Amino acid sequence: MTKDRYRRQALVRxxxxxxxxxxxxxxxxxxGGGGLGSNSANLMVxxxxxxxxxxxxxxxxxxxxxxxxxxxxxxxxxSKALVLQEKLQKVNMNVRAKAINQRVTSENIRAFVSDADVxxxxxxxxxxxxxxxxxxxRHNIPWVYAGVYETVGMVMGIxxxxxxxxxxITQNIPKSTMKEIPVLGSLPATIASIQCNxxxxxxxxxHPKGLIIYDVWNQCxxxxxxxxxxxCITCGRK
Amino acid sequence: MNxxxxxxxxxxxxxxxxxxxxxxxxxxDGNTLRDVIDVFVKQYPMTKxxxxxxxxxxxxxxxxxxxxxxEEDEVSIAPPVVSGG
Lengths: 238, 85
Ligand SMILES: [Zn+2]
Prior knowledge:
The complex is a heterodimer of chains A (238) and B (85).
Chain A: H1 2-5, H2 7-10, H3 16-23, E1 27-31, H4 35-47, E2 51-55, H5 80-91, E3 96-100, H6 109-113, E4 118-121, H7 126-139, E5 143-149, E6 152-158, H8 187-203, E7 211-215, E8 220-224
Chain B: E1 4-10, H1 13-18, E2 22-27, H2 33-43, E3 55-58, E4 61-62, E5 74-78
Parallel strand pairs in B: 1-5
Antiparallel strand pairs in B: 1-2, 3-4, 3-5
The structure holds zinc ion.
């Protein structure tokens, strides 16, 4: 039955049955279960990852529904992580899905990500991403940054000490004062799909390349070649 | 007047705004990436709101606006890193 489930995906030459079997041995941690995280968790479970932890402290709000997947009106007020676990587990009983209904901090992040083969960024803040980045570099755990704003999404697979890290490309960002980030409803699903492509490739041993920039309104899809910054305060070659 | 010609590769919607992925900017004042950004924004005013937050690389290396450049350097400019989720 498991073989039948993934039959069409295993036919993909780049993956094959070996790749599919390999995915089933991998553990993914999704930090944030909103627009990006819910869509990415949904895809990873359907594609046959071995196990997935979904970490989010918030509950489902009406204003989340336009850009998330999986959630419905009956979930309003419930824990995002728990709803995702419950519903996604029903999608694929071969995957071990676990909800972690906690806020990620510098004190607890290590415990959450220590077993991860890849971390998927479903957060909506730069400071939290910098925390994930530091942990990733310190403990050699790949992660895939993704972010959205209005009609623009960005994705970058980060392989510690191989590719640029998040700090390498964000040194001069001023602190955001924006309370609510505007987002086209279809954008997080689009960007989460690209994020999952990068995550799957990393899990199967491919090296990610550059910063992907997709402006869906202007039909611009770019991959910007950025190299590691030797003086990066997080990953620099000291 | 000393004009420094800088080849710039632009990404995302800047490509639409500039009408091309590669452009050449004439820098008449100064020799840092900030001066390149100033000319870029002046030439393409629709990019102005991003001015202080653009992703800028010199020879593919993310660089601060104060980084010095010469005509031999390859500069890239992209819209700011996005952080929503
Ligand atoms: Zn770095």
